[in-house]
Specification:
about 475 residues; mainly beta; six-stranded mixed β-sheet
Length: about 475
């Protein structure tokens, strides 16, 4: 791991409060932040007609990760899997599967996704929902356009297969299952987990999961399917995408092909029951090191706010304002020069980065009943702000969901690091009593989490990877 920049005086690094998406999702990129990907954080966007060669450095990751384009909504169609196998001389911490298959869940629009994005950004309104979801590029047999091209996974009866599942969908969290087959989760976000035996999974945008399935049912055809989970009042694509698990042989497809029974779209209990099961493997061969002696505490509220539009000139809300996501009531503004360049060149660039300019608040600017009735402004500040940490600091970051705007479950992600999810809960975080219930024995090591609606999530990590990295929420609003 890198210990510091090639710099005679600086040993810190910064985290930008960006709401943008990311590339090489979950790769730590030790000592190589210049190829991390987020536009105007670690690099400027790649101009049309040019090229950029990225260097990807792996360290402790093992399992399934993914990459995607970063700028605007180009990630909707430009993405793919990253598979890291066990090192030579080692093996999986479970019996080696007979075969494996990457399963990518994605969004499908009849329109140009960049035009959908630009329309929403211009108006300040909610983004139009997708027209379908896909499994490996196909909406599935429930859609007429895909009845003959539905993705099929051939399996041999009695054998076990590893499914590398990636949620590349723009906004929706998804339930996924296979009719009449149980699933065993053995990894997520490039790290192994204790086995979770389940009938379904719930996977958030940006997450990956390694899942075992054994072909132990009568030789036939079975649908694998994914449908959305949504606990908000915002519009969402309420569609189901399917693929077919097909046993090898001469059997004919039954009519109808059985579908898995997935939880309802607003079944928060089913979502919570699954997400709270994750534990690190924490074995002698896959040990973990949960940070204990915290030196930096950060409390970060997560909201969907309003951004004021002069003369009520936006159509995003009835009052003529625009929607805007925020962290600690700060909504990210893309600078003209990327923050990493401003840092490494010792440049003072107003509103971008200044050495020792710690201008992103480490706690909410106003304390209120975060998950109750809102009695504070619903408008957010805007700017390019950073948190600066010293190398080696031990950080606890608590995400606090709020009831501002449209409360909902939020996917959260941190670049440059994996982290331990040590606790989650509903309501307002209590820094006196809630830490007593933390899991400091075998918390999952991940890079993306679900922040529960009107709840909180606590993560811990050590600042040992110098660079400029973004805290992101996988969400459409800017």
């Amino acid at each position: 791991m890198a210990s510091k920049f090639e710099s005679p005086t600086r040993t810190g690094y910064t985290i930008a409060s960006t709401l943008a998406w990311r590339a090489r999702h979950g790769v730590k990129m030790p000592r190589n932040p210049w190829s991390d990907g987020p536009e105007f954080v670690t690099q400027c966007p790649i101009p049309a007609g040019t090229n950029f060669t990225q260097e990807i450095n792996f360290s402790t990751e093992e399992g399934t990760l993914w990459w995607h384009a970063h700028s605007d909504w180009s990630r909707a169609t430009v993405h793919g899997a990253i598979i890291i196998y066990p090192a030579n001389g080692t093996s999986y911490p479970y019996p080696k599967p007979y075969g494996e298959q990457t399963i990518v869940l994605a969004s499908w629009y009849k329109a140009d996704v960049m035009e959908v994005y630009e329309e929403a950004v211009t108006s300040g309104a909610e983004f139009n929902t997708s027209d379908a979801f896909t499994i490996n590029g196909q909406p599935g047999a429930l859609f007429d356009c895909s009845t003959g091209t539905t993705f099929r996974l051939p399996v041999k009866k009695g054998e076990t297969y590893l499914l590398r599942i990636i949620n590349a969908i723009l906004n929706e969290e998804m339930f996924f299952g296979i009719a009449q087959h149980n699933l065993t989760v053995v990894g997520t976000d490039g790290f192994y987990t204790k086995s979770i035996n389940t009938e379904y999974i719930m996977i958030t945008p940006g997450q990956t999961m390694d899942v075992l399935v054994t072909a132990n049912q009568p030789a036939s055809y079975y649908y694998m399917a994914a449908s959305p989970f949504s606990d908000s009042e915002a519009a969402f694509d309420n569609a189901t995408t399917t693929a077919i698990l097909q046993y090898i042989g001469n059997q004919s497809a039954p009519s109808p092909i059985p579908l898995p029974t997935l939880p309802g779209t607003n079944d928060t209990t089913a979502a919570s029951n699954f997400t709270t099961k994750f534990r690190s493997l924490a074995s002698s061969d896959h040990h973990i090191s949960v940070p204990k002696n915290i030196t930096k505490h950060i409390l970060m509220t997560v909201s969907v706010n309003l951004i004021f539009c002069p003369n009520d000139s936006c159509s995003g809300t009835p009052d003529g304002d625009r929607l805007g996501a925020s962290l600690n009531n700060q909504s990210f503004v893309f600078p003209s020069t990327d923050i990493l360049e401003a840092y490494t060149r010792y440049i003072y660039i107003s509103n971008i980065y200044a050495y020792k300019q710690i201008d992103f608040p480490l706690e909410p600017p106003i304390y209120f009943n975060f998950t109750g009735d809102v009695n504070v402004t619903v408008y957010t500040g805007q700017g390019t702000k950073v948190i600066e940490l010293e190398y080696g600091e031990v950080v606890e970051l608590v995400y606090q969901g709020t009831n501002i705007g449209n409360a909902q479950n939020h996917p959260m992600h941190l670049h440059g690091f994996s982290f331990y999810l040590v606790g989650t809960g509903l309501g307002n975080f209590n820094n006196q009593t809630d830490p007593d219930n933390y899991n400091l024995i075998d918390p999952p090591e991940v890079n993306t989490i679900q922040l529960p609606k009107k709840g909180w999530a606590a993560i811990r990590f050590v600042a040992d990877n110098p660079g400029v990295f973004s805290i992101s929420r996988s969400f459409g609003y800017l």
